[in-house]
Specification:
This protein is α/β, with parallel strands linked by helices. Strands 1-2-3-4-5-6-7-8-10 form a 9-stranded parallel sheet, with no helix packed on it. A two-stranded parallel ribbon has the order 9-11.
Length: 306
């Protein structure tokens, strides 16, 4: 009864709001029946003015929220994956001039309720709206890996949770599905520094694999242990990299990556020499990127916005 009164109160409040430009409604966790009309008032009074809409876990179970496709001037839509389907993606692509669609999951998202949009639908949506950016992200202490959309035109994959780290399985999935479209990847959380910094437990090789297989990445954010040598390898592999954000507290000053048989002795010796200190590494990265580069303190890293 109390929840019903709160929902009615929310509906009445939204019905009184006129010409909204931004609306964030998170963690409503409604049942399907209650979600049918909750946005009627907003649609009636703000359908032409709303440019930013954020709906995380509007329903707990799978339920397509068709209403989101009727805000005519929407620029950014942030929504949980259990609230979209093929039809909604096509409606967004066909009828809205959407700048970015963010499929976002958090601790309260039940990934068992998520039905990924088909690859054919994503291809059709890309043809209709080639400029629409698509972001997959995990936020708010999410513990489950991102639900990857098959062969979607994903442009960015971001984590805002310290519970998820770089894994070989996830990176292989990313490379297999988004190698031509991905331009941004990273984790903006402060990872646990108590984890092992031994090479076999670090993401060095996996991140090198990502960069070599997703050649359009221009922004990379690394929050875990990584060696100075591996950072130099990443920058040398990444032909379009413009922004590299790394925590200074997680850089290990050495080159412990096994030598590749394809590397020349000159290349390998240069790597080892520039890996001896953060200063030498930073100077070489600055030369490659074309601007004065330096790693970030944890305070600086925690305020990053991308």
């Amino acid at each position: 009864m109390a929840q019903g009164k709160m929902l009615r109160g929310l509906e009445e409040l939204l019905a009184k709001c006129c010409d909204l430009k931004s609306l964030t409604l998170n963690q409503l966790l409604l049942v399907k029946e209650d979600a049918l009309n909750v946005f009627d008032g907003v649609l009636q009074r703000s359908d032409k003015t709303l440019t930013y809409l954020e709906l995380l876990n509007c329903t707990k179970r799978y339920h397509p929220m068709y209403q989101v496709a009727f805000f005519h001037n929407l620029s950014i839509l942030v929504i949980s994956p259990q609230n979209v389907n093929d039809d909604i993606v096509l409606m967004l692509a066909a009828h809205l001039n959407l700048d970015e669609l963010r499929l976002t999951q958090d601790l309260y998202t039940d990934i068992d309720e998520v039905i990924p949009v088909t690859s054919d639908t994503w291809q059709e949506a890309k043809n209709m709206a080639p400029e629409m950016a698509l972001r997959l992200e995990a936020v708010g202490n999410a513990r489950e890996e991102i639900v990857f959309q098959p062969h979607a035109p994903v442009t960015s994959i971001l984590y805002h949770t310290s519970y998820l780290t770089v894994t070989q399985n996830a990176i292989e999935t990313i490379c297999g599905n988004y190698s031509n479209t991905l331009v941004m990847y990273g984790n903006l959380s402060i990872a646990d520094s108590k984890t092992s910094n031994a090479f076999d437990y670090r993401p060095d090789s996996t991140l090198c694999y990502l960069i070599r297989n997703c050649p359009n990445i221009h922004t990379l954010i690394i929050n875990e242990w990584i060696s100075s040598g591996s950072l130099l390898l990443i920058v040398s592999y990444a032909k379009k990299l413009k922004k590299l954000h790394v925590r200074s507290s997680t850089i290990i000053e050495k080159m412990d990556c096994p030598k590749n048989s394809l590397w020349s002795d000159t290349f390998y010796e240069k790597l080892k020499g520039n890996s001896l200190s953060v200063e030498l590494m930073s100077r070489e990265i600055s030369f490659i990127l074309g601007y004065q580069w330096k790693p970030l303190t944890d305070d600086m890293f925690s305020t990053l916005h991308v």
